[in-house]
């Protein structure tokens, strides 16, 4: 039984499968409702990426975490909508910063309209998320605010780069913990918290979310190099073209002093908006050991996420969470 097709997660328990499917349908309805506006153009722009689909990884994590309490508690679905709206808003802003042309297999909002529309629509989504969040109580507002601060800090640290003497790979992993891990941690925490699960479960799911979030982003780094647009839903080598030093590139640069990678380094230091240079850089990096090292790091973080689940009781929910770890690794395979 498949819960999330794009992620390939299978749930063997019929009751859990049915419950998760119903929850995801309710979340989808909530996302469409939350992105409606009295201004038709705003609705069109705000629903652009919602209707394009997506893995809904964060809402799925909320629903699975909620299984350790009352999965039908009134705050579960709204909290999942808040987390996904926040994630979607960051995508609108990221595409502006990256000058991305494609997102989830469709033109990005900045490409279809312009940067101003993308930025303002992202702000609109943040506002709608905050509106829903206000009904979930002050503790939820505080948790979301702290996570959002970490997310923005991670983005700023990525832009600023590592301080002198800091290992660029360590710096990058800290960036990912902020940019991606923070919101994944909130997904796990909200699901458990809103369902009334024990405090120990809330802590476990928060830690799991953080670790699986970093693994998830590392898998994206590998996919940006290794996949084609049909697999990833965006243009291959987007980060490469924009000069974003993702983990495969960082591993390459760490090796360059002792290996004969001069041509590849030369390409990475050049203007990769040139299609021929970009294609050559992609081809060389796909064959480079640095890409395999990034895959190994993805597996290491997925394994760390799996180990965080140790305190949870055995059963179909824990198996499904372990399946998320397998699915992340599969994406980077």
TrEMBL record:
InterPro entries xrefs: Isoprenoid_synthase_dom_sf, Polyprenyl_synt, Polyprenyl_synt_CS
Pfam family, one: polyprenyl_synt
Keyword terms, alphabetized: Magnesium, Metal-binding, Transferase
Cofactor: Mg(2+)
Top-level taxonomic group: Bacteria
CDD domains the UniProt entry points to: Trans_IPPS_HT
PANTHER family to which the protein is assigned, alphabetical: ALL TRANS-POLYPRENYL-DIPHOSPHATE SYNTHASE PDSS1, GERANYLGERANYL PYROPHOSPHATE SYNTHASE
Similarity comment text for this entry: Belongs to the FPP/GGPP synthase family.
Identification of the protein by name: Polyprenyl synthetase family protein
Species of provenance: Streptomyces humicola
Source organism phylogeny: Bacteria, Bacillati, Actinomycetota, Actinomycetes, Kitasatosporales
